[in-house]
């Protein structure tokens, strides 16, 4: 059926392009780190460049918890979203899923960030701990990426997958530009912030285009509530630290519990809409 074949081809090819562009966003920063920090005329710069890549890659693994959740979520969510196309209340379902998703990934952000003194032991080489400051940045970047994945359903449901390719290519280009400009000065911190900025911009562009081509009335107030509360709790956590490890653990996870209870309060059967 050549007609069906052509329609499938037009639908799928932009998603393939978006996939390749996504690989650039996820991995190209480490390639650029070594390339831009190594100067052949300075032999010791090779060791410095490899150390920067090693620190960044090791600390990046701590942000993989959100990434793993995103991958598992995508396998389940996309078939579910397509199935809801026959549901008259599908937009309500999409909004509800987004609310719960944002609350969940923000909770994971706090789980790792507030317990970094525990999670850092997954990095066996203690010399890499100097880069732990990138972990919250990368976790937040992956939250934006997850929201973007959630939003991307609009161009898949509407068949306008070309927009997915445009957004991903723009993100890949911006990733390269930011890294090339700032890595020589800021090293792996530039790569971390580039990831955060690119995923935020992709999320924002996807939302704007989605509201134009396939509007879904997402609850922005809940989005800002959960994200703002998570960032606030993370920001005040250093001021609550004490010298006692056990007590500090209780205080930090008390902040996490506070967030979870708040999200549960607002999501419980949507009894308390906001």
What is the subunit organization of this protein? single chain
Work out the helix count. Answer: 11
Q: Helical proportion?
A: over 70%
Distance between the termini: 49 Å
Query: Which segments are poorly predicted (pLDDT under 50) over 5 or more consecutive residues?
Result: none
Main beta sheet: strand number and arrangement?
A: none
* Global structural class: mainly alpha
Q: Which outline best applies?
A: flat
Helix-strand topology string = HHHHHHHHHHH
Portion in beta strands: under 5%
How confident overall, as mean pLDDT? Answer: 89
- Radius of gyration over all CA atoms, rounded: 21 Å
Total DSSP E strands? 0
Description:
With 274 residues, the protein is mainly α. Helix content is 79%, strand content 0%. The protein has eleven helices and no strands. It has helices at 2-37, 44-60, 64-83, 90-114, 116-119, 134-151, 153-157, 162-186, 188-213, 220-236, 245-267. Helix 1 (2-37) runs antiparallel to helix 9 (188-213), helix 4 packs antiparallel against helix 6 and helix 6 runs parallel beside helix 9. The termini are far apart. The model has no long low-confidence stretch (mean pLDDT 89).
Essential attributes:
79% helix; mainly alpha; 274 residues; flat
């Amino acid at each position: 059926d050549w007609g069906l074949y052509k329609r499938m081809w037009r639908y799928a090819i932009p998603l393939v392009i978006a996939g390749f562009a996504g690989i650039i966003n996820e991995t190209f920063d480490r390639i650029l780190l070594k390339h831009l920090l190594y100067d052949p005329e300075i032999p010791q710069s090779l060791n410095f460049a490899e150390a920067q890549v090693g620190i960044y890659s090791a600390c990046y693994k701590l942000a993989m918890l959100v990434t793993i959740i995103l991958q598992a979520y995508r396998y389940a969510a996309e078939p579910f979203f397509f199935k809801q196309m026959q549901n008259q209340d599908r937009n309500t379902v999409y909004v509800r899923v987004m609310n719960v998703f944002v609350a969940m990934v923000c909770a994971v952000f706090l789980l790792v960030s507030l317990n970094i003194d525990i999670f850092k032991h997954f990095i066996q080489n203690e010399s890499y701990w100097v880069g732990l400051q990138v972990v919250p940045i990368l976790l937040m970047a992956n939250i934006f990426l997850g929201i973007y994945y959630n939003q991307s359903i609009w161009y898949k449901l509407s068949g306008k997958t070309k927009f997915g390719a445009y957004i991903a290519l723009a993100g890949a280009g911006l990733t390269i530009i930011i890294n090339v400009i700032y890595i020589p000065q800021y090293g792996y911190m530039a790569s971390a912030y580039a990831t955060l900025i690119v995923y935020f911009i992709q999320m924002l562009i996807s939302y704007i285009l989605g509201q134009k081509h396939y509007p879904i009335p997402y609850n922005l107030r809940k989005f800002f509530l959960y994200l703002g509360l998570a960032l606030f709790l993370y920001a005040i956590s250093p001021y609550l630290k004490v010298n006692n490890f056990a007590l500090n653990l209780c205080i930090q996870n008390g902040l996490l519990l506070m967030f979870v209870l708040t999200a549960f309060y607002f999501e419980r059967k949507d009894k308390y809409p906001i």
